[in-house]
Design goal:
alpha/beta, Arc Repressor Mutant, subunit A, 61% helix, 192 residues, Rossmann fold, 2 domains
């Protein structure tokens, strides 16, 4: 596992590093410079990013939230103090674990595990949502093509679907591809 620790303070980074000492087969990278952070993390290609911000200003928080939006990795963020707005913003930015006043070596491993599990669960939800949206869009295209066939050829709904299905089978294509071709043809002919 590759872990990037982002902290401008070497002493705070050492606490996190100590909490990860028991991990086997683990490469740990400490990044202390904020400038070029996304590029540096891209070079490291970590499996997880641990951000220790101490007591950041609102501007610093916003900067790190922008970084977390750009990364598609589990992120655990440590801060000394927080408010509801900052916690909500961190979740919106994709932070997997937002820890307030919890920087202690013995807590690092459970927080790391939680961040990875939450990131994976959220990724599965995003994948499921994208798949559902894709299926809905396909269903809408098929329904629209059926309506076109029903209006133009006088088919009933089952007949229109059967025609789409038969054409798809004959051409070795998916029904949605045929439906989209019907919609495109209708648009080219000046309808809908």
């Amino acid at each position: 596992m590759r872990i990037a620790i982002v902290d401008e303070s070497a002493s705070r980074a050492a606490v996190i590093h100590e909490g990860l000492a028991e991990l086997e087969d683990c490469d740990i990278f400490v990044v202390t410079e904020r400038r070029g952070l996304v590029a540096r993390i891209g070079e490291i290609e970590p499996d997880i990013v641990l951000l220790d911000l101490g007591n950041p200003s609102r501007d610093v928080l916003e900067e790190y939230f922008a970084v977390s939006r750009a990364l598609d990795r589990p992120i655990a963020m440590f801060v000394d103090e927080s408010d509801d707005e900052a916690a909500s913003a961190s979740i919106d930015a994709g932070v997997s674990s937002y820890v307030v006043d919890g920087l202690a070596a013995h807590r690092i491993r459970p927080i790391l595990d939680l961040a990875v599990k939450r990131f994976n669960a959220f990724s599965r939800l995003q994948t499921d949502l994208a798949e559902a949206k894709g299926k809905l869009a396909e269903r809408e295209s098929i329904d629209r093509a059926k309506r076109i066939l029903m209006e133009s050829r006088g088919f009933s709904e089952p007949q229109a679907y059967a025609e789409l299905r038969k054409t798809a089978m004959n051409q070795g294509r998916r029904i949605v591809d045929i439906a989209e071709a019907v919609i495109t043809a209708r648009q080219l002919m000046g309808g809908m």
